[in-house]
Predict the 3D structure of the following.
Amino acid sequence: LIHFLSAGTNHIANHPIYTDTNITLTTSSGIHGPQISEWVLMTALVHSHRYHDLYDLQKTHNWGQRGQQGRLRTIRDNVGQRFGVLGYGSIGRQAGGVFKAMGSDVIAYTASPRPTPESKKDHGFIVPGTGDADGSIPSAWYSGTDKASLHHFLSQDIDHLLISVPLTKETTHLLGKEEFDILGRQKAFISNISRGQILQQDDLIAALKKGADPEQEGGLRGAALDVTDPEPLPRDSPLWDAPNCIVTPHISGLGVMYVDRAFQVLEVNLMKREKGKELINVVDRKKESSSPPRGDTDRRPRSPTPVPFPPLTLFRRDIDSRVPPSSRQAFFCAFLVKDRIEHPLSVRDRKTKVEAEGQGQGGKFGKVRGERRGMRFEDTG
């Protein structure tokens, strides 16, 4: 079993462990919902409440004129607006809950149909107190993998579209001029926390310019982008100066709880593995993305009862033996659980430092530290 701290595995899709082995891979999908949803809300409110104008006034110690305050009377709150979620996974579910709490109508789009209450449930990792476990938040669900189905969803008078689909061959450049024209009928606002390649970036810039031109109809009201194509975004990219566009450097998922929650996913799976149950957040290699749980593909016998165990160990030498030096950086923050260690979580009354070491950018080693109850990671080098 290899567990990744990331939500997806597209960055290692061409590596030997992904392509040439049947090792079970799991991701930390589900841990990002709280902080990313707050980013989505924050950037949307920064735009709709004209915060940049207010901050400029504060910097110049200026209370503002009547005309400037009059512009603020045009602000529309979220009550009654339609919040569309393209990709109703863990992030979309949490964001949907946040915007519904603010009075928005939430609609969801998924690749496969969800016609029954059971099919709408979230079977992945859920941060306690968050998300939409039973799938009851959306007022309507839409689905499909073809353009006609996508366009039908985008035509539902969406005021704010959240893009939270994984990057695959099918979703690359999923949204372009045709889709922006549909969204332009409602002058929608777009939030992209997925990957920059989901959008046709030149078409997005054109739609933003059109939306900012009072002499033209349609276009987008604005956009908040935590991802771009490429990354880092070149200094001379026209995206920086696109009207009504907020760009942040792929940081929406960061927070002090990131590592702790990633280990919570691993902890859940180790307990399930010990009991011979299906794992969560298992990567479906056929879809080249992290999918809902389809079971642990490694069906070797498990001990039915707990037995004494050694500390859980991170074996960096296993990566060294399987992955070429030029490719090892892709496995930064990937934790390998040896099959012979079946019960690493039996001791739960002490906290120990968790330290993992992996190769980062530039060929240098970086460290990830955190604390998890009853777990100790050792780099055996």
Residues 258-274 form the longest helix (17 residues). The mean pLDDT is 80. The chain is about 25% helix and 15% strand.
